[in-house]
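Per-record layout

source: Lygus hesperus
name: 5'-deoxynucleotidase HDDC2
length: 297
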Amino acid sequence: WLGMRGLFVFGVKSLLTVCNCGTRVVPKRQLCSRAMDSTQNFLQFLKLVGNLKHLPRTGWVMRGVKDPETVASHMYRMAMMSYAIHPSETNMDMTKVLKMALVHDLAESLVGDITPYDGVSRKRKRQMETDAMVKIAKLLGRNKTEVVMLFKEYENQKSAEARFVKQLDSLDMRLQAFEYEKKEGMPGKYQEFIDSTEGKFTHPDIMALVQEIDRERAMFADANGVGDGDILLDEDVVKIDEEEDASRREMKLKVESGVVTSKDEVEKKEKESLPEAEPIIQLDGKKLSESPDKSNH
């Protein structure tokens, strides 16, 4: 009888375990199921991140760039900038800057890289990306709230960290445009991308990098016989590149016919419109609110 009793107790203990709080007994099978769900969710999260490795950035695709950078490669260099740069004078949380650089375009793993030419309003784009971030965050464990809050802080552009990451974003575009010009041996070909970043730099360390990029770009132009004011115009590029990407040709026709306005005009109209309400973010039934910015910057 004692042997049977011991076997029974052993069997019960093997099926039950105590949860972390130590106040109630939970079937081990249930805990194993939770662990499996957590592992499966995290694997799904990694697959979504993997999508960004193969998602080319739309702006370069529309411009006819061959083998354009992906969203993941763009985010990686931004993250490396955040890690390697050492601002001379700052009270910023550089760990937060690094994390923000890693998640700022994460929503594109679900919604893609949306541009002003896609016919999606800024309000709709932000809501789509916010919804995507909530879905992605639900695949994570303890970091899910932080991921959504970092994205929200970046979008709101109220903190010093968010503004710094935004400038890194523009810096990477400026550098990438120059790199494509050098790769193709065509100074000034991507001037429109350079122009789109003008006036967006305020941090002294980033401005120093911008000046160095511009200096090297000017030297490259001089070495290739292109002087000031002699950058290639869009129509010149079209004549030179007869095999221009089909999507670029289609967009050019839409702009010329007035079906789609230029990027600058789209942004101008959006700025002139009334301020839009901030998307409501709910995670696990709770409304998330951004922590107040305590930075003096």
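summary: Residues 47-286 form a domain with the Hypothetical protein af1432 fold (CATH 1.10.3210.10). The longest strand covers residues 16-18.
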